[in-house]
Amino acid sequence: MDKISIIDLKIPAKHGVYEFEKDKEGLFELDIEMYTDLTMPGNSDQLNETVNYDEVVRLVIDIFKRKDYNLIEAVGQSICKEILIKYPIEKVILRIRKPHAPIMANLKTVEVELVREK
Prior knowledge:
The chain is an alpha+beta fold. The chain contains 4 helices and 4 strands; from the N terminus they run E-H-E-H-H-H-E-E. Helices cover 34% and strands 31% of the residues. Strands 1-2-3-4 form a 4-stranded antiparallel beta sheet, covered by helices on one side. Helix 3 (53-66) runs antiparallel to helix 4 (72-86).
């Protein structure tokens, strides 16, 4: 299976359980892996026969900023669902990092990873 990856997409948003997280945007980081067969576009060299990752990025940003979620798991679920519906993708792996998570510990980031298939 072939893979298209979008790595370290940074999106400002107000996701979080606490009210203070919804008052000011934090910068989230996303990685998206989309599994599909790339034989046809590899042979034809035609954009209309592959997944246009510019469109995917715009879709992900739109979903991510559409509403303020309590959980990044929930916004991630919405993103995976839409990608699988709109594109010829068989499997998507989405990682969302929240480096500014309000945790009183010495850590770089927190991350959730969702794996969804058709």
